[in-house]
Each structure stands twice: as structure tokens, then as C-alpha cells.
Amino acid sequence: MGDAFIRHIELLGYEKRFFPSQHYVYMFLVKWNDLSEKVVYRRFTEIYEFHKALKEMFPIESGDINIENRIIPHLPAPKWFDGQRSTQNRQGTLAEYCYTLVNLPHKISRCLHVVNFFKVRHDDMNPVTDSQIKKPEVFLLPKDSKKNPTDITGPIVLQTYRAIADYEKSSTSDMALKAGDMVDVVEKSENGWWFCQLKNKRGWVPAAYLEPLDGPDESEEQEPNYAGEAYVVQKSYTAVEEDELTLKEGDTIEVIHKLLDGWWVIRKDETTGYYPSMYLQKAGEVNTSVKSELRNRGAPPRRSTIRNVKSIHKQGRKQISQETYRRNSKKYIQNQRKLRGNSQNKANVIIEKNEPEDNKPKAQPAVPPRPSKDLILNRCTESTWRKIL
Question: Where do the PX domain residues begin and end (predicted)?
């Protein structure tokens, strides 16, 4: 009989364990080519390390050389603190990952790295426990979950971006980049800081240093809204560039264009300029500790301030000049004033036209002629015609 290989991997659910400390493991039913079936338990951190090693073994199939050749599925990085909710929500992603993994070409799906990872270990048969600690809790994946996709989350497909310039991290939570590095974006924050992963590194990166592989990403940016959305300044900022605005905490402004790099175009009275979005809060929203903590970070760099940009695109990003913002914003405000003025004038004209009609005396109904005596005698009752005789 030939070398052992895996026919099928099915995610059964997860288990909450309490020894040596509280953690979660996923349960997999592994079906082998000799028709045997074994249940194995793996932590998500183990699975992710296995995934990273697999990508390094097959750089072409993982898209490290050319992203178009990628066939190895994506897998999101572990969170800083994995709780029960994230463990449960990740089941759909893992189920899809295992299905894709087994159906890859044999040189990948049947390699020793895959086979050895899913082999039964001693801990799978006899998990380490402590009689004084409560027993593990098992959470099984519903059998009809495949029929009802709403029961589990779908696979998470991460977007791959390329760094257009070198970036030196400014804090421990940031991640340094070199021009040309390809990263998977895990989370896009509207404040201009994106959480990315690069091989075994993870951290925040300014969105201004990243661009997608297939072209400029203007499609992800909203069009300018010159009507404006009301926001309140939560942190003061002094303008550094000429096209930025200096505002104080508590100022009320209008946002007219939300840009991906975290620098939004805002309007204060009739003046427009750039301002860090992380220092703004939508009018009426409640302030939270998370938002307050984010404001302690420095504002991300703007795209226009990155020097020696090594972009892979011949086509530049579509840029709107600040003069265009001011002109269109002023035009919008003037049009609104004209519309309000016209509506008031129309209302006054209608009132003036109606006033003469209201002063005219209303027409009185015509008085019918008095009936003749013969008509009264023939048609009225005896009590009526006696009164007139």
C-alpha cells in the first residue's frame, strides 16, 4: 500500500478546556486513505503556524511571487485575545479552509507537512487533565450548518496590498515595511490605520503607504458629499500643510469627503481643508473608551506627504485639488441659499394673490320665489294652508 494521505477533513466543533489554563481547541474528523477515521484536536495558533509554514514551502502557490498564482487559501491571523465568540465565529472559515486544502494538487495536499500535522498525537487520545478542575466543555457544529450558511460565518478573504514606500514604525503596535512588501489587510479603520500581517509579523500600517495589486483604489472611496455630515472635533489639531485646517476641541464642522488615508476634507463655515478623521466624531454619537484611546495615537501620514513614492502604477490616483473642493462647496452653499430664497418668494407671492380673493364678499344663495295659493292648497298639509288663508 502507498503512502498515507488524507481523503477528507471535517470540522466537528470546538472544545473549551481549563487545564493548564483556559483555552479552546478545534475538533477535526480526519478520514484517511485506508478508510480509517480519527478525531484530532488543534489550537488555532497551531493551525496558523502550520498555514504559514505551508506558504513558505510553496511560495508560488501561496502568491508570494505572483498573487495571480495563489491557490493556497487565506487564513486570518489569531486575535490578540481569542475568546469563545471569536472561536465560534471562526468555524466557517476553518471548515472552508480544510475543504480547500484537501482538494489542492497532490504535491500540497499529500505532502508530509499536511499529513504529519493531522496525524493522531498522544494528546489527542489522552488529553492532559486535572481531576480537581472541571471537565472540558464541548460545542458541536450543527450537522445542517452546510445547508444553512447563516449558522456559521463564511470564509474570510483578505485583500493583498503592496507597500509603495519604506515605512519605519513609530510605536510597538506598528509594523515596519519596505517598498514592494505584500501584506494581507485584516482590518481597515477609517482613521487611516490598517491592521496588516506579513508572514509572522502583524501590526498597524498607515493606509497611505499601501495600494492594491490590481490598480488604484479610488473605487473604495466615497464621492464628495457637498451637503456635508455634521461632526464634532474631539481633539485639537494645528495645521502643518497649507491645505489643512486648524480647529479646537468642541468645534462643529461638516465632512464633505471621506478619504482612505484617514484625512478627510471638512468645511468650517465656508472654508474647506484636510483634518485627521481620528479626531472627529459624528454629531450625536456617544463617546467610547476605545475611540478615546485611538485619539491618543498620532495622525497617520497623508498620501501627498510621502516622499520618493515607488508606486507600481503608471496611472496615478485621481486627486481633487483643494481649490476644487472650495469652489464646489461654495457653489453648493450658494445654490441652497437661492433655493431657500426662491421658495420663500413663491410663498409670499401665493399669499399676496390669495389676499384679494379672500377680501371679496362671498356670493349669497338665491332666494326662491314664494309659491302661489293654489300650489299651497294642492301640495301642503291642512295646518299649513289654514295659516295663510
Answer: 4-125
Q: Are the C-beta atoms of 15 and 27 separated by less than 8 Å? A: yes
- Cβ atoms 142, 12 nearer than 8 A: no
Which fold is adopted by the domain 222-286? SH3 type barrels. (2.30.30)
The structure's pTM equals: 0.49
CA 293 to the chain's CA centroid? 20
Q: What is the pLDDT of residues 117-165, one digit of tens each?
A: 999 998 888 776 655 566 788 888 776 554 444 344 444 456 788 888 8
205 SS3 class: strand
Q: Are 303 and 208 in contact (CB under 8 A)?
A: yes
Cβ atoms within 10 Å, residue 309: 13
322 by DSSP, 3-state: which? helix
Q: Where are the alpha helices (DSSP H) in the chain?
A: 44-57, 84-89, 91-102, 106-109, 112-117, 122-125, 289-294, 322-359, 373-379, 382-388
Helix (H) or strand (E) holding 23: strand 23-32
Which residue intervals of the chain bear CATH 2.30.30.40? 158-212, 222-286
| CATH numeric code, 158-212 | 2.30.30.40
- Residue that the C-alpha cell 473642493 belongs to: 325
Euclidean distance between CA atoms 195 and 357, whole angstroms? 70
Mean pLDDT of the chain: 81
Q: What tens digit of pLDDT does each residue of 4-59 get?
A: 999 999 999 999 888 878 889 999 999 999 888 899 999 999 999 999 999 999 99
CATH 3.30.1520.10 is held by the domain 6-137:
yes
